[in-house]
Write a structure and sequence with these properties.
This protein is an alpha/beta fold.
C-alpha cells in the first residue's frame, strides 16, 4: 500500500479559503484531531473559524482566536468543538492542563501543534498554510493519512472532475 500524499491547493483570497474550509468541514467527524500550522498571519485562525461556523451551521457565530485563552469551546446539541492555540506554550506537558482529550467525541482544532510534537502522530488531518507569491493568497497543504477519501473528494470538487 502506498503512503498517502498531501493535497495542495492555492486560494487566491479569503473567500476561496472559506469555501475550502466548508468543504473540509464536511469530512470532519466526532473525535477528529485537526492540526493547523504555518507562519504567523498565514490564516490558520481564519480557516478554523470558517470550519467551526460550518460545522455548527452558525454563519454569524463569533469565533475569536484563542491565542490568549489557549482553548475556546463551541457546541450545539449535536457536536462539541475545542479550538486551541499553542503559540504561547513553553512546555509540551502543559497540554494536559487544557483537557483537550477529556471528551473523546469532541472535534479538536489545534493551531501551532509543533509546540507539542507528539500531536502529529494522533492527527486525523494536518493542514499547513503558507503565504502565496508576493504575500497574496495562500498555499494550503492538506494531509489526511486516516481519511484518504477526504483528499480524493477534495481533488474532485476543487478541480470539478
Amino acid at each position: 500500500m502506498s503512503k498517502p500524499k498531501p493535497f495542495c491547493v492555492f486560494t487566491k483570497d479569503e473567500n476561496e479559503t472559506v469555501l475550502l474550509a466548508k468543504l473540509l468541514a464536511r469530512h470532519i467527524n466526532h473525535g477528529d484531531l485537526v492540526l493547523l500550522n504555518g507562519p504567523l498571519g498565514a490564516g490558520k485562525s481564519a480557516l478554523v473559524r470558517a470550519m467551526i461556523k460550518s460545522l455548527l451551521n452558525q454563519p454569524d457565530l463569533e469565533v475569536p482566536s484563542p491565542t490568549f485563552l489557549l482553548v475556546l469551546p463551541y457546541q450545539n446539541e449535536k457536536i462539541s468543538i475545542l479550538h486551541a492555540d499553542l503559540y504561547r506554550f513553553e512546555h509540551e506537558e502543559e497540554i494536559e492542563e487544557l483537557g483537550l482529550f477529556d471528551n473523546p467525541d469532541a472535534i479538536i482544532f489545534v493551531e501551532w501543534p509543533e509546540r507539542v510534537p507528539w500531536l502529529m502522530q494522533k492527527a486525523d488531518i494536518i493542514i499547513s498554510l503558507q503565504f502565496g507569491p508576493d504575500n497574496r493568497g495562500r498555499q494550503i497543504e492538506i494531509f489526511a493519512p486516516k481519511k484518504p477519501k477526504l483528499i480524493a473528494n477534495s481533488i474532485r470538487v476543487i478541480t470539478n472532475d
